[in-house]
Structures are given as C-alpha cells and as structure tokens.
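Slide 14.
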Amino acid sequence: MTSCAAPDLGPHGLGASMRRGACPSLAAPMRTGDGLLVRLRPAVDGLTPAEIRALAVAAGAYGSGIIEITARGNLQIRGLTPESVPALAAAIWETGIAVAEGLAIETPPLAGFDPGEIADPRPLARALRLAISGAGETLSFAPKFTIVVDGGGCFNLTMLTADLRISALGGEDGIRWLLSLGGTARSAAPVALLEAGEVVPAVLDIMRSLGALGPAARARDLDADGIRQRFSAGNALPFAGEGSPSPPPAGIHHFGGAGTVLGVGLAFAQTDAGSLIAFVRQAEELGAAEIRLVPRHGLFVLGLSGEAAAIAQGLARGHGFLVAADDPRNHIAACAGLACASTGMDTKATARLLVEAAPDLLDGSATVHLSGCPKGCARPSPAPMTLIGAPSGYAPSGYGLVVNGTASVAPSAYRDENGIRSAFAALNALVRENKDAGESAWSCLTRLGTAQIGAAFEQG
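Slide 15: predicted structure.
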C-alpha cells in the first residue's frame, strides 16, 4: 500500500503510538534521546537526485539534520519535535514522493536492473502488496512483520532476516519460488516450492494461520512441518542459502551492458543533510539519474558513465562517505549511540577509535558490533564480536565484550572507559602476532579462543 497524501497525524499533530516496538513513521514517530525519529520507505525503486535533496533539506529544516540509512535500506530522519513532524510530513507530501505504508515487502536494491538476477521480483512483490492490502482487516500481523521477495543477483537479500522469504530458484523446469519461514536465506525453514501464480495464495494462507496465533505472532512461531505438509506433501525442499551474500555497497560496480553503479556507504550508518545535498548535487551534474537506498547503510547512484562514476567516487570520499569495500568502517555495526536515551556508549566515537587502534581486526572477515545497551538494535543477530556500553552489573562507564553472541548475552570480559583504547590495541596485537600467512583476523581469533580474546581485552 502506498500513499502520496499527507498523513493523518491526529488532533495533536502526532499519531498515538510514539513508542518502541513499532516501526517509526510520519504518523507514529518514535521518541529517542535526540528527539523524535521518523523512518521512511519509498514506495518506488529509486528516487531522483532532486527528491533526495528535498528529503535532506527537510531533514535539516525540521530535524537535527542527521540522516540515517538502516541495515534494511530505509531512510531515517532524526531530531524532530512534536511541532516539526507535521511540517516534515507536509514537505514530503509537497515533493510528491510516494511513501510505502503498512507491511514491509522488500526486494533487492537493484531489482530489475541487475542482469545477474534469476528473476525480477518486483511484479510478485506488487501482487503481494495488492492482495494483502485488499484483504484489509481479515489479515493481522505484528508491527515489524516483513516479507522478502528475492530475485537474486549480486546485491541479493540472503542475509536479511524476514518473517516470510520468497526466493527465486532457476532450473531446467524454469523459475520457481521457494517460500520459507523466519530468518535469513540460510536459517529460514523452507515450506513450499511454487510457481509464480501460486505464491500469493500461499502467502495469504500462511498469514491467516499466523493471525490465528495472535497479533504479536511472528512466522517463527508457526509449525513449519505442518505448513510443509500442507503445501509440499513431505517432498524434499531445497535451501536458498547457498548463494553468495551481498558485498558492502561501497564501490564502483560494473554490470556490462546494463551500466555502471556507484555505491556509497554511510559511515556508521549516518550522514548530515549538508553533506548529502552537496554530494547528490555534484553527482547529478555528472549525469546521475536515479538514487536507490541500499541495505547495509548505503546508496546506489545510477546513470553515471564509468568515468563519471570514478569522479563522483572521489567527491563522495571528500564528503565522508564510504567509497571502497576495503574501508574498515564497512565492518562495524554501530547503533545510534548518544542519540538514544538508553545508551551507555558514544558508539560513533568508539567506532572511530576502533578504526584507529585495531586496523588488523577490521579486515572484512568479521563484523564488530558496537551497542550502547543490551538491546542490540544495530545487529539483532549474533556477531563475532560485540562491545556493549555499561552492561548490567558493572560500573556506569565501561564496556563489556561478547564473543560470538548478541548484545543481550552476558559479557565474557570487561574494560573501563579509560582503558578501551589499549584494549583495542591489545586485540589488534593479538591478531597481528598470531595470524598465519593467508589467515583472516576472525579465523585467527577463533583458533585462539574466547578466553584468550577476553584476556587480551581486559589486560592489554
């Protein structure tokens, strides 16, 4: 369901659900440590440079000017107030940008463009949106319920979690769609292998089963074996998790006759309105025609020639964007930090310190998760290494280290605030001094074990 109309913000200018646990929208912004936050999902594949600039101008005029692109490729505007949210909504409405509403149905950022995709997932995604919207109140689902329709390609969605996952599979008999429940492509439970025309009825059937479990139910709560019997009669099903996960968006990506795409990343998921406006204006002058939001905190710029993409890449670097896959900042997942009232860590400053003190740790073999609290918003799934600010039971200023776990797990090591630089340096030395030729940082640390990692962190 999409809308270009100004949203109904209620008698007091804001929706009634200004709370955590639901997706923050224009009608229901979320309170954070730096004011209100709004998350926007454009209803179209990409936006024009003028539309991106208009959003950035509005973010600066009505918010703090801090703009984020989330791990799922949504745009967030921070630092809003109850008085400025209606003005922001009106500004977006005036641009004519269609904002998606309701259930999130996600497709790869280069869907329909990438010649390496198995199938264009957009027609199936549109059919699902139409059917679910048409079902109205007969379907109920949790606020963060998500469907992924993945046609494959270089920048696929295999690593993105979803309640329902629909993945294109090619074979001698043509293209069919694997329907799976809960998780990433690797962890989701496959329940049906379907022709394109069978997907929508199957999804609606599963969603009705889910609704019977209650408004907070997620797909992982369903009986996968029972649903599998319903659709596949016990037949063996393939897994869609065998493909290569997407690389970081940053870099110049060549797609043969389809053209060149410039990928830029937002350092630690954030940029400021001024930098974004300046870069987009320069890219447009070089020929950029379309900009797409990308999971893992990035933007794709389409329409540039190979030569123009190289020039724009240099300009993006000058504005502080990530422009290369080997930039160590690509391998840090940091939450909002001081912008959140729950934080015990300035995650952005800690991330910069990590880049300076532990470059050998950030070789791309593992993601380091920096979480201001045990909620782990930047990475809900386990990370090879997670640093948590002020974990429960410790002093107010300190950091807990979790190895191969989430931010909610009890830390295996602890360091006070004053010692964090030397702790990072010790981890860096641990890798540098023990890594075998050709071995990755994370392979080395895995071989050394949690106890040795924790000891270096605490004693370094």
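Speaker note: Confidence is low (pLDDT under 50) at residues 1-13, 15-20.
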